[in-house]
Design goal:
The complex is a heterodimer of chains A (152) and B (242). Chain A has 152 residues and is α/β, with parallel strands linked by helices. Chain A has one domain. In chain A, a hairpin with a 2-residue loop joins strand 4 and strand 5. Chain A is globular and about 45 Å long. Chain A starts with a strand and ends with a helix. Chain B is mainly alpha-helical and 242 residues long. Chain B has 2 domains: 154 residues, no CATH class; 60 residues, Winged helix-like DNA-binding domain superfamily/Winged helix DNA-binding domain (Arc Repressor Mutant, subunit A, Orthogonal Bundle). In chain B, strands 3-5-4 form a 3-stranded antiparallel beta sheet. In chain B, helix 3 crosses helix 5 and helix 12 crosses helix 13. The chains are: A alpha/beta (152), B mainly alpha (242).
């Protein structure tokens, strides 16, 4: 299971607790495993009085936005029984946050003190993403490029 | 607002069931004053603003509406009234029932007097200011605090059962549905459990004396308060079990 979003930032020490929430976005869980994982999450949620959808794969819609070679940068969070948990690495988190560029993403980017090298990486990532996804996300990618260009 | 103050505000929201990854406040939360503080520091943390709106949509009936309106008039600085107005009107707009919720408090916020991005992150330079203006929702333009529309974040709010388990006064607030009686109870709790006169209570709650008298009668009948006649004055006290 790959953790993305704010939870990944918290797990790899890039973001503070006051800037993240306890819901967890995950990616890359096979469908048959997702059902089992959801059952386990429901059990934990019941025990800890959490909202029903505290663990969700809504981010799965954006799985195509993972940067190339993300596997080489992922962080090993740990193995819990049969469950192996990874979190996306810093550069990939930054890239995905530029791509999403919601207000909370931009705040996270400020807190992460993005370097010029990392911005170059994001630039290449957006070019690659535009090539991979075509017109479908052209407007969103273009705005992400503008934000990147004006980031200081 | 300082980082420490913002963290304190967030810790209070955690106690009310908002799942920030930090410890809950150990003190009981004054819900209406927390809303004022949230308006004061929303610019620094968009997630705080979005989660406060989500919480209000879900649990707005925990809020003592009369008291909130009066606190806005008495204590909230003019520059933050627009943020408060936007927060409350978003909660009203995104809620599915009771469209009259928060009307009194929204009115107390006045109207937008200046225009700017709501969030600090959108004031970084001209590009971001311009983008914030372009992407702003109609409601945020109306209040002069630009912010794009957003989806409620209900996957980061705990269920009501957790909230009442950790916040005893919320049981009563839920029963009273945030009406004038809830404001009276909240005012008594915030004033060392007593208020010296009916007129003082009317001022604190922003209600007429006749409305206060009627609400006091019902609260006394349900055993929640004690009325003590001291000469010409009527002292109102919270009963310990209330």
């Amino acid at each position: 299971m790959l953790v993305v979003g704010g939870a990944a930032g918290l797990l790899n020490g890039e973001l503070a607790g006051v800037n993240t929430t306890s819901d967890v976005d995950v990616l890359l869980v096979a469908e048959r495993n997702w059902d089992r994982l959801q059952e386990a999450a429901a059990e934990v949620g019941m025990e800890m009085n959490l909202p029903a959808n505290w663990l969700n794969n809504d981010a799965g819609l954006y799985a195509e936005s993972l940067p190339a070679d993300w596997k080489s940068r992922r962080i090993d969070v740990g193995r819990f029984g049969k469950l192996q948990v990874w979190a996306v690495g810093r550069k990939d988190l930054i890239a995905m946050k530029f791509y999403s560029h919601r207000p909370q993403d931009r705040e996270h980017l400020v807190q992460m003190n993005v370097t010029s090298q990392e911005r170059e990486f994001v630039g290449r990532y957006l070019d690659d993403l535009a090539g991979r996804t075509g017109w479908a996300n052209a407007g969103k990618i273009e705005l992400a490029r503008e934000i990147l260009k004006n980031w200081d | 607002m300082s980082r420490g103050k913002i963290n304190h505000v967030i810790a209070q929201w955690v106690r009310l069931g908002v799942m920030f990854n930090t410890s809950a406040s150990k003190e009981e939360v004054d819900v209406e004053r927390l809303l004022l503080d949230t308006a004061r520091c929303a610019a620094a943390n968009s997630r705080l603003f979005i989660l406060a709106v989500t919480w209000l949509v879900e649990y707005g009936e925990y809020v003592a509406k009369h008291r909130l309106a009066q606190l806005i008039l008495d204590e909230l600085e003019e520059e933050h009234c627009q943020t408060m107005g936007l927060m409350l009107e978003l909660a009203k707009e995104k809620g599915v029932d009771d469209t009259h919720r928060f009307n009194r408090a929204i009115k107390a916020c006045g109207r937008g007097i200046d225009q700017r991005p709501l969030l600090d992150v959108d004031r970084r330079n001209d590009f971001f200011v311009h983008a914030a203006r372009q992407n702003a929702s109609a409601l945020s333009l109306k209040w002069g605090r630009w912010m794009e529309d957003f989806a409620l974040k209900d996957d980061a709010i705990r269920p009501a059962s957790w909230i009442v388990e950790h916040n005893q006064p919320m049981r009563l607030r839920a029963d009273l549905k945030g009406d004038l009686r809830a404001s009276i109870m909240a005012a008594l709790q915030a004033n060392s459990h007593s208020v010296e006169s009916e007129s003082e209570l009317a001022r604190i709650c922003g209600a007429t004396r006749s409305a206060i008298a009627e609400a006091l009668k019902r609260l006394e009948m349900s055993g929640r308060i004690k009325l003590r006649h001291l000469g010409k004055c009527l002292r109102i006290e919270l009963r310990r079990a209330a």
